[in-house]
Structure formats: structure tokens, C-alpha cells
Amino acid sequence: MPKIGNIELEDFSLLLAPMEDVSDPPFRALCKENGADLMYTEFISSEGLIRDAAKSVQKLDIFEYERPIGIQIFGNDIESMKMATEVTQAAKPDIIDINYGCPVKKVACKGSGAGILQDIPKMVKMTAEIVKSTHLPVTVKTRLGWDENSKYIVEVAERLQDVGIQAISIHGRTRKQMYKGEADWTLIGDVKHNPRMHIPVFGNGDVSTPEIAKERKDRYGLDGIMIGRASIGYPWIFREIKHFLATGEHLSPPTFEERLTAAKRHLEMSIKWKGEKLGIVEMRRHYTNYFKGIPHFKEHRIKLVTQDNAEELAQTFEEIRANFSSVEMA
Fold first, then answer.
1. N or C, which terminus of the chain has less Cβ within 10 Å?
2. Diameter over CA atoms, the chain
3. How many DSSP H helices and E strands does the chain contain?
């Protein structure tokens, strides 16, 4: 059974990926209920934590029912990352995770996230300093490399292990690929099967069905998988994968009523946690998947993603129930 520090995990764990404006407490609550074994917060700016910026500090909010949970931080200055680690530790997560994988321009082109893949010595040094500055287990999320010519992940993972990380999650693309093309898991498998590696290795990228999860498990022998985009608006992905791995059979999909109830509850929690304006806006990306497969739903989906007050949305949910409660979900 794999362990991160003293945290015992399932033999093949399902992790919720850290996703900005997605992996917040309301969404994590739904994923936990549906079987996520280990979850990570949205990534948090080290500079924001040091400056006590409200949005960054709010992302430190974690709850007992979420455990085990990791808080993910990013930045490009070693001293700032050490200071942010101290702030993060005070929030009492189970794990501190370092983001070395975010490919977006505003992060990577400043040397943070996947940007540090252009400076492996700094990446190793920063990791070593963060490990030394906390009693919590430190994990890393990263990519195969910066581009096709620098996919050094097998060596990089070994070096990060040598300075003290206790697990690594690897997205099967380079930074240059962003999210295009197919994720290549071959090198993730090579990391896991490197005889010098002894920490848990998790794969990430394009796991969208139970069949894909099983294929990745059987082919690469990893300690688990990290699920990101496939969980947006569909927290049931975790329970479906677990059921398929255990039985070889598909779990019945969530009913219409389950989908509607989850979407309403998610919105209510989002508003309670972020306030009405932001809570409503950041829910919008979830609706497509919550109601995917319902015929003639376009008009209602447009309402869900354009209405900007809770009363209107409550009325739209009631219209949806009235119009689609008899729909059979495939």
C-alpha cells in the first residue's frame, strides 16, 4: 500500500487534480463524496500568500472531511516559496505540493509552474529548500519537460526524490503542448519502473473513462491516477472508475435527479463560500457536464451560463426539473 509520509493510500489511488477556479471546497466536497482518495487545492501564489492577498489566503481553507488533502503552491523565487511554505503549513494540510506543471503563459513565462522546467538545477534547489522548511510531506506535480527536446522527467523525478519529495504526479505532456494532442504516459511508466524510485508515482492526462483508467493501471503499474478535466461538472467519475476496477462492470450513470441535485447544491455551496457574484460565475464551467446528454437542453444551458443572480438561477433549475425530470440518462 503506497504511503506519502505517514498517509496510507489505496493500492491504486484516485486523486483530484489541482485546477484553478475549479478545485475549490464546494467542488472538493462533491468529489470526496464520490470516492476521491486524495485531493489538492487550487494552486496558490507564493507571492500572494506573503502579501496576505485575500484571494490567495482564502484558497488555504480546508475542512476535516476533506482529509487527506494537499495545498499546492507556486512561484519562482526560492525565498518566497519557503516563506509561503510556512504560511501554508499553518493552515494544517496533510501535504504541501509544489506546482511545476502549470503551462499558462502568465505563470510559465515568469519561471513559475512549468516554466521552471527550463532550469532543472533551480527546480531541484527550490524543492530541497521547501522540504527542509516544513515537517509536512512535500509532493510535486510536473510535466514531461519544457518541449520535445527536453523530456528529462526520469532523471528529474529521481533528483527530486533524492532531495526529499514523497510523491510525484506527472502530466503526460510537455509545457509546449499545453493541453493539445494526446498525453504520452510512456515516460510516466519509465519513472515508475526506474529501479531507484521508491516514492509513489501518479499519472495525469486524458483519463476520462473507467476503461482508460484500467488500461493505464494495467499497462504502467502506477500507484494511482490524477483526474482533472474529466471531473469538471462530473464528480461521479471517481465512483465509476472504482466500481469498474473492482468489478469489470459499468456503474449506472447518475440519474437526472442526481445531476440536478448535485448542480444545485454545488451552486449553493459556491455562493456561500465565494459570495453571489463570483460563486455564480465560477460555477458556469461545470454546467455543460452536469447536464451532458440531455436532448434539447441548449436554451436552459444558455440561461445557466448567463444569469447572474441566485433567484433567477433557482427558477431556471425548477424549469429544468419540470421539463426534463422524465429523461433517462445514458
1. C
2. 60
3. 14, 10
pLDDT in tens, 34-50: 999 999 999 988 988 88
- How far, in Å, CA of 141 to CA of 202, rounded? 9
Q: Could you give all domains of the chain from N- to C-terminal order, each with its CATH number?
A: 3-247 (3.20.20.70), 256-324 (1.10.1200)
Catalytic residues: 102
Distance of CA 174 to the CA centre of its chain: 18
Contact 286, 233 (CB under 8 A): yes
Q: List C-alpha distances in Å: 251 to 32, 204, 206, 210, 255.
A: 18, 23, 20, 10, 11
Q: List Cα–Cα distances, 283 to 17, 85, 194, 289, in angstroms.
A: 17, 29, 41, 11
Look at residues 140, 206, 215, 195 and name the one whose alpha carbon lies nearest to residue 170.
140
Q: Over the stretch 155-165, which tens digit does the pLDDT of each residue have? A: 999 999 999 99
User: pTM of the predicted model, to two decimals?
Assistant: 0.94
- What is the Cα–Cα distance from 274 to 268, expressed in whole angstroms? 10
